[in-house]
């Protein structure tokens, strides 16, 4: 399965960008994101990771940690879809690559170490402002 995904990405790179990663990464977000999403094996999170981390574009990456942490903090978009979550961040944060990179890294770290499936609210620096913090610590929220 991974080989098929890699072949699809290589096909995109060779057919659309003459095999030059620099050309792919220099393409406008409005052009590149749909091409990535149309490539077998690349979903929204992977496409946005490529855009943020490899191409250095101000695109916010949404992952499982984000979708777990922010509802616990009482912040959710209208719908629970990747695009709704992405819009929530893109519309409310300054479009800055460094900010998005650091913010995402902090969310991942917090999600791995503190706000896990079984949260460790007792060590959470956000506990005071968290509407669900401390309630039912043994429950998965």
From TrEMBL:
Keyword Metal-binding on entry: yes
Molecular-function annotations in GO: 4 iron, 4 sulfur cluster binding; catalytic activity; metal ion binding
InterPro entries: DNA_glycosylase, HhH-GPD_domain, HhH_base_excis_C
UniProt keyword annotation of Metal-binding present: yes
Keywords, in A-Z order: 4Fe-4S, Iron, Iron-sulfur, Metal-binding
Any single biological process term in GO: base-excision repair
Domain HhH-GPD: 1-113
Protein name: HhH-GPD domain-containing protein
Organism: marine sediment metagenome
